[in-house]
What does this fold into?
Amino acid sequence: MNDGPLQHLIRTLSTLPGLGNRSARRIALHLLNKRDTLMRPLAQTLERAADEIKECHVCGNLDSHDPCGICQDARRDQSKICVVSQVSDLWAIERTGAYRGQYHVLGGLLSALDGIGPDDLNIAGLKTRAQSEQVQEIILALAATVDGQSTAHYISDTLAGTSVEITHLAHGVPVGGELDYLDDGTITTALKSRKSA
Amino acid sequence: MRRHGENGAVVSLLTQHHGRQAGYVRGAQGSRLRGTLEVGNQVDAIWRARTSDDLGSLTLELDRSPAAHIMQDPLKLAALQSACALCDTALPEREGHAGLFHGMNALLDALQSEVWGAAYVMWEIALLKELGFALDLSRCAGGGDEEALAYVSPKTGRAVSAAAGAPYKEKLLPLPNFLKPAAGGSDEGDVLTGLKMTGYFIEHWVYAHHSAGPPEARLRFEDRFSSMLNSLSEELTVGAI
It folds into this structure.
């Protein structure tokens, strides 16, 4: 194969997460076979998404509006802010339908070994939002990992001077989880976080 | 753990016989291994490589997870991250440090006890020794009373007695009580004194030629400990009023 547009398409597709060269070749052939019904609409959708989707300046969510749909929704509880690491975590919580408050996307976690410090995350924005009289509770929905919990402790310290209540998600046995199959760390945390039945 | 490619990562381990050993772990970013590859976890590891110079690949099995016990304690978590970051950045690769390995095990156990602060300072002193920067805290560098050691010389890392060090006390580092010959108990103030002392040698000796200086985790741990102590003393002052 020469180094033309086809090879360029395959190379670009193979840089996407989960795709190698073989999958990229299959996708390229599939797109070329459905040039009018799939390839052109897909190209238009990609271009439109690249032009229109932006980061919400309030919470860091991705949407075609700024502020995003969640921040603009007056029916949502304005007194609660759920702090998440990435937009994918926000989507995970939204999928549950169990939370109807606001969000704040940090854009990562503090990581000692990766050299990610507080200035690399959107913590200043959270501090500003926490000072609003409307906000009463900040829920730290961060990973139950060393980095996740270090970030949670750092945020708790940073917001210590404000009047908001700071809570975090429970750690322990997942729904449908059998004790025999759980790792020691999860069982230990679950025992430490036990509550009266 | 440093991400490598889409699913894998290059993971650094502190091993008993080979010191800091890195290797590629396939699927390290997947959900199955995520719990195993936490900072401070103890694992059974098998390292395989075609030649001894290769990066090689690691197969890991979780042995125990000390971080799970201290996840709710910000100071202990910061101490764990600091110790791991120091090992990761200060230790040369594939150079045996069995003493430090056992010291790390003891520190992980101590982090679940009440005397973890003093244990952490002792561990940093052991780290300095393993890296060739041993402190001599057994006798006075100025020929003074060995029973009344009070300072450490920042130039030599040797202890100095209270009398011999008095004229230079502004330039000397205070020696925490739990490291004195007639060692007493250690309170938080002593631990902070110890952290400042070892922190000085870590910065000026171990990381003297590292452009980035000591790891952020070590600096953050000392800051956090210091602010904890400040807030504690403020509470005591308010209580006394």
In short: The helical segments of chain A are 5-13, 21-33, 35-52, 69-72, 87-96, 123-130, 146-158, 184-192. Residues 5-52 of chain A form a domain with the Helicase, Ruva Protein; domain 3 fold (CATH 1.10.8.420). The first strand of chain A starts at residue 54 and ends at 55. The two ends of chain A are 67 Å apart (CA to CA).
